[in-house]
Design a protein that fits this description.
- By secondary structure, the chain is α+β, with helices and mostly antiparallel strands.
- The chain is 30% helix and 13% strand.
- The chain has a 7-stranded mixed beta sheet with strand order 19-20-21-18-22-23-24, sandwiched between helices. Strands 1, 2, 3, 4, 5 and 6 form a 6-stranded antiparallel beta sheet that branches. A 4-stranded antiparallel beta sheet has the order 15-14-16-17.
- Strand 9 (142-143) and strand 10 form a beta hairpin.
- Helix 2 (109-128) runs antiparallel to helix 4 (185-201).
């Protein structure tokens, strides 16, 4: 909405470094508001914008939940915000009354009891919204003789987030001041108790535990016996328990807030999981004895690559049962009419996995070289042959590499680390291609393809992912990453990742005549043999046209389907962005989704066996929808939690099912193992070719971690058990 505005004078906003405050009067009626804006000099602080965004998220959540309800009068009401302007801001209704600090020693006993009861009510409302205010002090709480009002939630954290050191004694709890543990609504109850003591005693306490003279104040007996003055949050009562002790009615007992319309779709998600369990043979949907027995049985190994590509393979057949000895062993080519796969060190076909494959022990180089690998481009096996080694110069010329005379092991290893191996299967008319040597000399490769139409943000998402990897984002999960090829990785970082981190919009991926992967990593865990992980990022037109460029998709190990809210969601709040970007909503889903799903092989009841992650990209456009804010506003946990992955998948499915047509959920419907994630590759919309407030990726590693967990790359994750809550790990 737009208004003619009259502004008052700027002044520094207390408790908000870098923010300016001023009165403003909107429209001809002159509606008064208070504006807090992030001044231009403060935009250089990478955390200042995040603090404003977090404040707006909390304010909007409270306004949507309690804005029209009577109990919500204890909270400051928000009017609007703009996070895309040159100086982002948020607007609130002016507060009435005076700070409690001005009332010390002047309040009657009945008024004090009313204040404490209303403050406990406010904490109860915040807690039910999953928020911890953290700034409840006599200076920030106002009293107008009838009602208290908390200040704006500029310091709020979500309950369960790591505490950040904030506040001063005695108003902030000892744990909050030290930044220990996770934010808890009972942190705010400590502040309420200290205010109660201050109003009655006329002076603040020291703030380290129960006041020494607490027993002298009989009116504080309920607080004393409740444990609310304990320095540890775990020993304090919950907000609803404190209300009961104070004989204050619980405002939520009367059902404040509307029913969640997504609940019906969460139930639909559960039904879909049960359906896929039954189709894939993971157990009875009712979770009965048959399901439990199936979970205890060892799971059959993953189907061979031949079976994954051509279908009909029996994964339970002994490894090598279909191999014939009559291939052209000198060249590594299969006999005419045959696709031959070189056995790996575990006796299975190259590209197969079993329980032992998930954490392979270190093996000698000779064993890795003798196995062979499937070329991810032409889907034929390549056995290491030193006669096919090349280097590639700055002009792209392939220069033969002869290491026959090199006797220094260190120099030889360094040369191989940077070398390429020509694929021997280039036929007449085919584009010559090659593989990084480490792709052939390490553990089982993992190929990951990003799927989506043009302009959905695949390129930005991949760049954001690999940028987080480069910053050590996978290390908390026990993973170490090195480049698959150092020079190619440096080029990708320079041209893609660094450009994005500097706030530049990346150019669209051009159409190709031959699919080449964008970048690759060597990923290892716990001293195990590193596994090559390569990423394909093709133009949306190439994916949607079912052309020969996409034939490599039949051998891809895992997929990230990238969904664009501008095309998918019926939300009218997205219409201005759609108009600005020239995009239209599509009821029939993403053309690339349908084309790819129709192309890749299916097993187990007609479901796609390869693990899939459905990434709702550009989620920053809908980040103030409650269910999106629940996930996008939280950092990743630093450990893989299947329960949390299932909960996010369930919420994302419900959100999409409620706001989009069923066609957009086709990857989830068609794939046995599919998780759903809210992600934001850039965190904002570009203006021209730049992101005005920089690129701020959110949760971009979540889809990748989910795929790694399914493919046995995350240490300590059991991929052989039955389905976890909300997960479809049934490969």
């Amino acid at each position: 909405m737009r208004f003619a505005v009259r502004y008052g004078e700027d002044h520094q906003a207390p408790g908000r470094p870098g923010f300016l405050a001023r009165r403003a009067y909107l429209g001809t009626a002159g509606q008064p508001v208070v504006q807090y804006r992030l001044a231009s000099p403060a935009l250089a602080d990478p955390y200042a914008y995040g603090r404003l965004e977090r404040e707006v998220a909390a304010a909007v959540a409270l306004e949507r939940r309690y804005g029209g309800a009577r109990p919500g009068a204890v909270l400051t009401r928000t009017v609007g915000f703009d996070l895309t302007s040159a100086e982002p801001f948020v607007l609130y209704r002016p507060q009435s009354g005076r700070p409690l600090a001005d009332w010390a020693g002047r309040l009657a006993a009945e008024e004090q009891e009313r204040i404490i009861g209303q403050l406990a009510t406010a904490v109860r409302l915040l807690a039910d919204a999953g928020l911890v205010h953290r700034a409840v002090t006599p200076g920030t709480v106002r009293w107008d003789g009838t009602r208290v009002r908390l200040c704006e939630p500029y310091a709020a954290l979500r309950a369960g987030e790591p505490r950040e050191p904030y506040g001063a004694a005695p108003w902030a709890s000892p744990e909050q001041r030290a930044g220990h543990g996770t934010a808890d609504p009972r942190d705010d109850l400590w502040s309420v108790a200290e205010i109660a003591y201050f109003l009655l005693a006329g002076r603040p306490d020291r703030g380290e535990g129960p006041p020494r003279d607490l027993a002298d104040y009989r009116r504080l007996a309920a607080l004393e016996h409740s444990g609310v003055f304990s320095p540890r949050a775990s020993e304090r009562p919950g907000p609803e328990d404190l209300l009961r002790l104070l004989h204050v009615p619980d405002p939520l007992a009367s059902g404040v807030g509307a029913a969640d319309p997504l609940d019906r779709w969460r139930a639909a998600y559960d039904q879909q999981i049960a359906r896929k369990r039954a189709l894939s043979g993971a157990g009875r949907p009712d979770g009965g004895a048959a399901s439990e027995a199936a979970a205890r049985e060892p799971r059959p190994p993953r189907a061979s690559l031949f079976g994954r590509i051509f279908g009909g393979a029996d994964p339970a057949r002994p490894a090598g049962a279909d191999r014939r000895p009559d291939g052209d062993r000198g060249t590594g080519r299969p006999a005419h009419g045959e696709r031959r796969f070189t056995p790996d060190a575990r006796g299975g076909p190259a590209g197969s996995t079993g329980p032992a494959a998930f954490v392979p022990p270190p093996e000698p180089l000779s064993a890795a070289l003798s196995r062979g690998r499937m070329c991810p481009h032409c889907l034929l096996p390549v056995t290491y042959d030193e006669r096919l080694l090349v280097t590639i110069d700055a002009k792209g010329n392939r220069i033969p590499l002869d290491l026959g005379a090199e006797r220094r092991p260190g120099h030889r290893a360094d040369a191989l680390r940077k070398a390429y191996h020509l694929c021997p299967h280039t036929g007449q008319g085919d584009e010559e291609h090659e593989l990084p040597v480490p792709y052939l000399t390490n553990g089982e490769p993992l190929t990951v393809a990003l799927v989506g139409s043009s302009s959905v943000g695949k390129t930005h998402l991949l760049a954001a992912m690999l940028g987080e990897v480069e910053l050590g984002g996978l290390e908390p999960y026990g993973l170490k990453c090195r480049p698959l090829n150092p020079e190619a990785h440096r080029t990708y970082l320079r041209e893609r990742v660094q450009s994005l981190q500097q706030g530049r919009q990346l150019g669209r991926t051009g159409q190709q005549t031959f699919a080449r992967f964008a970048d690759g990593l060597l990923v290892s865990a716990g001293g195990a043999t590193p596994r090559p992980v390569v990423f394909f990022d093709l133009a949306g037109e190439d994916l949607a046209q079912d052309s020969e460029v996409g034939r490599f998709l039949m051998g891809v190990d895992a997929f990230v389907f990238v969904l664009d809210p501008l095309r998918a969601l019926r939300l009218t709040s997205l219409d201005p962005v759609r108009q600005q970007s020239g995009l239209r909503r599509r009821e029939l889903g993403d053309e690339a989704f349908a084309t790819v799903l129709n192309r890749i092989p299916r097993q187990r009841g007609g479901l796609v066996a390869a693990p899939v992650a459905l990434a709702v990209n550009k989620s920053d456009l809908v980040r103030f929808e409650p269910v999106v804010d629940r996930w996008l506003g939280r950092a990743l946990m630093g450990r893989h939690d299947p329960v949390a992955v299932g909960a996010e998948s369930r919420d994302a499915y419900a959100f999409l099912a409620h706001h989009a047509s069923a066609a957009w959920l086709k990857p989830f419907d068609d794939c046995a193992d599919c998780t759903l994630h809210f992600v934001a590759a850039t965190g904002g919309q570009a203006r021209g070719d730049r992101f005005p407030h920089g690129a701020r990726p959110r949760r971009v590693l979540a889809p990748l971690l989910s795929l790694f967990a399914s493919c046995g790359l995350l240490p300590g994750v059991d991929t052989a058990g039955s389905l976890g809550p909300g997960e479809g790990n049934v490969r």
